[in-house]
């Protein structure tokens, strides 16, 4: 288990001595848009990185009943939602997210979509507000725009009040084909169903309503809600979903139930649904309904199939048993190992880094995607890979999203780097713990796109970033390097404690980038304004150069110039005529005071060459990295 007392003691010592100075620095030095500034000045958020005394977050309770037809991919659903206005504002409209309208003919999408998957949008049959049915043809009252449905309220929802919303709808999920993003059909009878129900958008202290359209590249932003969901499918089909399975005995055969119950406390993987079970399942008739509940989660998804196997194993985390599960077709050769990999990942994240206990009762990895992966609370939809290291890394990456964005409620639409960069970092933690090489993708991507027009300040809102090169680089790889750089600046112990504390502060809330910056400053006791500015607010790239080289006082003085502007480590190789080369290193923080430093080297008589070497961040311009001394 994580040593929370160790973290707490270290952070208390740091904060007592340095907090007053830190608060002044944080208020004055980082650029902050007006919409953010008003939130900090009004006490909703604190300059010390904590939620302020006036912090609030809205929430909802969902009761959803859905029928899903695997033969067609059609969902027929009805939902009752109780929405709680915890804000200090009178709310005059609701914004409802209809994310599958990504496939609506005429709507914008970032990637090509198979024309066969385009449709007329989610069919809305009925909308009620507080039991009053709305006229769907009255555009002054209700209208659709992009992937949003906007409802004007006849009576404003006052602070502290609740509202009941009822919607009946029908949705055609995307079939297997080009552009079915993250969810949809895997084969003729297997589906991963996400982004599937009308969902009240986030109303927060920064933007009010989140009204950005979902266009495919950016993901989403949700409140922490409670779910009660019933899903009816043919009796030949199983359902796996977010939340706790409520009616196991009612819908599963006794042998399957027994193995499922056994797996809840087993340290070894148990195959709950076997190939033999699949033969019996195929003979079932009619339909059955699966029931799930999930509390304080940001979304709800489910998968269904008539021919997927199901592996379950459990582990103890924080004094309770948590299951790691894998669901996959018999043809997925890598997936029989995935439940075990997931179990190890949950243990590493809970005890090593970030050291915050996995917060949910389970995690299910489903093989219903033809490449890559996609996260949902307690679930992931992952493709198969051909290498063990790739399977482990992908499994870890998607489980890492538990912490970002699901446990700390990140706004992925605006700041994808706040979750994808951490997922890359955390996947590497798992790889290192298992004695395997870290991913080479980040260094490769930096060499390819660093310093290009796609290399943007990370604070750039993600909704304005398009194209696979810019999305991959700015959402995943550049922030991964930034977090590795931050680790070097703080040192491993302080870094670990700071991120652990940041997660604890913002669990169940919506942190902004500034909450992250201010929390790390506060928890580490360091004024990192120079670092945040370099890595998150300014254009810059990795390019160090050897400047003036001269001799003074019997030593060689070497000027190192940061020509690219990005704060990175210095590693200078010194070659001598008749001895092994030596390496002189300077930490990233040498750039806190300017764009050049001087390194003094003793006994310069036999030095023949100086060369700047790559650190974990590749130097993008090698032509200015060496200097040959003339003898």
Short description:
27% of the residues lie in helices and 30% in strands. The strands form seven sheets. Strands 5-4-8-2-1-14-18-16 form an eight-stranded mixed beta sheet, with no helix packed on it.
* Approximate shape: globular
What is the mean pLDDT? Answer: 93
- Report the structural category: alpha+beta
Count of separate DSSP helical elements: 14
Task: List segments where confidence is low: pLDDT < 50 over at least 5 consecutive residues.
Answer: 1-6, 9-25
Largest sheet: 8 strands, mixed
| β-sheet strand percentage | 25-35%
Task: Please tell me how large the radius of gyration is.
Answer: 27 Å
Spatial order of strands in the largest sheet: 5-4-8-2-1-14-18-16
First-last Cα distance: 60 Å
Task: Estimate the helix proportion, in percent.
Answer: 25-40%
Number of strands: 31
What can you see in these coordinates?
By secondary structure, this protein is α+β, with helices and mostly antiparallel strands. The protein contains 14 helices and 31 strands. The protein has an eight-stranded mixed sheet, with no helix packed on it. The chain has a six-stranded mixed sheet with strand order 17-20-21-22-24-23, sandwiched between helices. Strands 6-7-3-11 form a four-stranded antiparallel sheet, with no helix packed on it. A hairpin with a 4-residue loop joins strand 1 (59-69) and strand 2 (74-84). Helix 7 (388-400) packs across helix 9 (420-433). It is globular. It starts with a helix and ends with a strand. Mean pLDDT is 93; it is low at 1-6 and 9-25.
